[in-house]
Every structure is written in C-alpha cells, then in structure tokens.
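Students often ask what a holo structure prediction actually looks like on paper. The answer is less mysterious than it sounds. You provide the chain, you provide the ligand, and the output is a string of discrete structure tokens encoding the 3D arrangement of the protein together with zinc ion.
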Amino acid sequence: MPPSPLRSLLAAVGLAPKPSAIRADAAPAQAPGDAPSLSLSAAEWQQRLSPAQFHVLREEGTERPHSSALNREKRAGVYACAGCGTALFSSEMKFDSGTGWPSFFTTLPSVFATTTDYQLIFPRTEYHCACCGGHHGHVFNDGPAPTGHRYCNNGVALTFHPAD
Ligand SMILES: [Zn+2]
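The corresponding structure tokens follow.
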C-alpha cells in the first residue's frame, strides 16, 4: 500500500508527524486539474464540519478577523484542510501579516485551485482545496519575499498538526 499523500507531504517538508495527528478519514490527493476527489452532499458536509467550518469551506464565508487561535500559532508543523485532511502549508510558509487571518507566502505544491470572485467591488483571487473543493481564502500580491504572495486563509478552514 503506498504512503498516504499527507504523510508523503509531511516527509517532503521534513516534518515527522505523530500518527494520531493524521486524520484516518483523509481523502486521497489527486492530480491538479481534476475534479475534486472528495465530493459530498451539503448534508454530508454539515455532518462532517462545524457550522463555522461549513460556512467558510462550503459557502465561501469569511471568519471574523483575529478570531482564530492559529493567528498566534508559532510551532513547527503542518496546516491541513479541515474538510479533507490534505496538507496545505508548512509552518515555514507562515508569516505575521497583521491582518487578523493566518497568512502564508506560499503553499505546498498543487494543493489549491483558484477562481476570480467579485464579492467586493474589485476582483479577488479566491483559492480552494484541490481535493475537496473547500474554500480557504484569497491570495493577494502584497506578501513578503521571496514570492510576494499573501495567502489570507481562514483559520477555521485549517487544522494544525505540530511536528512533535
Ligand atoms: Zn480539502
């Protein structure tokens, strides 16, 4: 049996997870460009997620700024999708943007797909999990070096897995 995608990604970023930190029900990853491999009904997502997680991940909601404990998370580890368990960011990719949302200057490879949304007057680039389609946040071009990107992520859409 091949190693799970999350374990492979954790190994790729040099972080050894506790076995208990890995969701037993994590969905398999997929090649970028494919349809989401984890496709559930709204009722199934409602069972699986908290109301706040459902609002962000499945209804493209936005949590209140400064409401997530992950804003202050400084430990080494991996941030995974709260919907499907796919590893999305490592702690090395996080920076303090001061915006009140967990912020990252890059992502693990091929974990997100993007769309342009017009919920505000100006268009924004929305990004969502390539595995389950769950909405995570918006990416802006005012981030730090080396990428200049700022992935502004809802904390409630993430689960944090410390490295030790
Ligand atoms: Zn996901």
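Strands lie at 77-81, 87-90, 94-95, 103-104, 112-117, 124-129, 135-140, 150-153, 158-162.
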